[in-house]
Amino acid sequence: MAGDTRIALEKVSYSYGKGALKKQILFDVDAQIEAGQIVILTGPSGSGKTTLLTLIGALRSAQVGSVKVLGEELLNAKERALIKARRKMGYIFQSHNLLDSLTIHQNVRMALQLAGIRGSEARDRIGEVLDRVDLRDHEHKYPRELSGGQKQRAGIARALVTRPQIILADEPTASLDKHTGRYVVELIEDLAREDGSAVILVTHDNRILDVADRILHLEDGHMRPLSEVVSEGTSRMLNLLEKHDPDSANYLASFSFALARIAYSDGLVRDSERAEMRRILHEVARLEPAEVEFIMELSMMLKRTESGLDNRLDNPALDEERAEHFMESLFAIARADGKVTSEELVEIEAIASEFGLAKHISSKKPN
Known about the structure:
By secondary structure, the chain is of the alpha/beta class. It is 46% helix and 16% strand. It contains 12 helices and 10 strands. A 6-stranded mixed sheet has the order 6-7-8-3-9-10. It has a 4-stranded antiparallel sheet with strand order 2-1-4-5, with helices on one face. Strand 1 and strand 2 (23-34) form a beta hairpin.
């Protein structure tokens, strides 16, 4: 489906209010999203993420610039055109937004009724989508009878039952614990890839960045290159590390990034790998938990953007003891999920070569 553009934004600006109360929220935003792509939209609270999502989702009409969704221009669009566009999209909200008076089956069926799909086709689609989210045994229950994760999966089923070409998810993990949140995001990812849908997922949760094909960052209404954001974060990380240990800041930064490279080498960062990375960073740097989280997530983003450390650091020379610990830590991340994959081994060998540590690999390789 390469080249099948689902969403095209050009110089999009948006303001609330009028006269002296007018406040501009978005400034000249450009973006293009293709079929089958999963795009994560990040940014601090108040940066304009939800406003942008509502413009793409035809929940409000664009004011300035071009918003093309499935080939249709939504700039100054009339309500009828917005309704038509909305029917081709699926929405997943922070709260499941299920109707408490309807069963799960009825909630999902309502989406089909609004799309004009009824009868045997509707029954078949409902059964199929509830199977996909593992809720077939709960279809006649009411939302109050389900757990938070089950209700969010029901919301996903309702969003996907119409087989939308675009899926918009606004903080779908915000009200879930980390394990359920991860499951929900991977479910969205799997189902969207099966259907070839374009996905925009708004989140503050850096733990799920690895599912994205692309990451867009919105700040103060401006779309900023993620590499620029990461570069600023790297400076903050070095300042933080220098406060704790001025003599080892460069080493700790390189060490953190190397751990992230192993965790991300097979394209999926597992909870066990994150936990091991937290343990190692805490033991090595004696950082507070919040500081460990910041450094770990920034290292993940460095790997995700393939930006390295922006060439600002030379790989430090390591004495024998530190070299042994460095390599052992890389293998500890690789072994965290119970096995060392070929991708992880290739990445370890590449890092060892970069740091001049190839001689330390053989004794640690799995048999």
